[in-house]
Amino acid sequence: MQSRTSNLSVHAKEFFPASENFLLSPRDEAMPQLEIWNFSTKDQKLVLSLLDEWYSDITLNAVVEQWENAGIAPSKNQKEYIKILCYNVEEIGELWNTCRLPHFNTFYQKRTNKNGGVCIAVGKHLKATRIEVNIPNTVVIDVAGLSEPILIIGIYWPTSQQRDLDEILPYVVDGTILSGDFNATVKKWNSPITDRRGAHVKEWINESNLDYIPSTPDSSKRSLRNIDLSFSNMSTISSETLFFGTSDH
Predict the structure, then answer these.
(1) Gene3D superfamilies attached here (predicted)?
(2) Is 120:106 a contact under the CB 8 Å cutoff?
(3) pTM higher than 0.85, yes or no?
(4) Are residues 185 and 194 in contact, defined by beta-carbon separation less than 8 angstroms?
């Protein structure tokens, strides 16, 4: 056993002078700046509520990690499985061209409005090929490396956009999964009512021989609407809603 002594003192001065704001929370730091900018009381409350939500929840990397650890029910007939996360990302500014998810290849299409944009991220252990399409807010990816190839179509359908769903029909082949934010509600798909767009989507899904993939409770945190929808013509698919992230659905 060796014994060591040190001349270091617990009463020594700090290496760097402590900052007055060192112990302040982001909320407390923001308050003086909001007053300097002459934000109204209403706007100050809005900004502070956003900061509270932003700093109290988990990061996107943590979301991915939690999703990857989600349990999968065993199946005697299932040789392989693939986990797909339909996630609505809440962000300030675009980072798609500077930020990368580790161990994933990402395929992104720029937004057509201030809130849009579609991204599909595929694990690098799979071979993913992007199929070029000239359809707004739509990404189509062919995935190999499983027992059978699958085709994933990710879409975002803003409330203000007119969309012809028949444009994606040529890409609906055997082994297709269609998923995204449709901004459409259907009573049979866990929403209180069927709105006009929902009726149109439901009719198109039936005509395209796709099936709605039932999920656990509605995906919205602030209403009973279920607007994040997934469909497929594959029979062995299940879905659940995971309650994490800062987005409202």
Answers:
(1) Endonuclease/exonuclease/phosphatase (3.60.10.10)
(2) yes
(3) no
(4) yes
pLDDT value for 97: 57
CATH architecture for segment(s) 90-232: 4-Layer Sandwich (3.60)
The H or E element containing residue 118 is strand 118-123
Looking at the chain, the whole-number percentage of residues with pLDDT higher than 90 is 18
**123-161 b/e (C-beta count within 10 Å ≥ 16 → b):** eeeeebeeeeeeebbbbbbbbeeeeeebbbbbbbbbeee
Phi, psi dihedrals of residue 153, rounded to the nearest 5°: -115, 115
User: How much is the mean pLDDT over the chain?
Assistant: 74
Query: Which residue matches tokens 């939500």?
Result: 53
Domain spans of the chain, in order of start: 90-232
CB 96 within 8 A of CB 119: yes
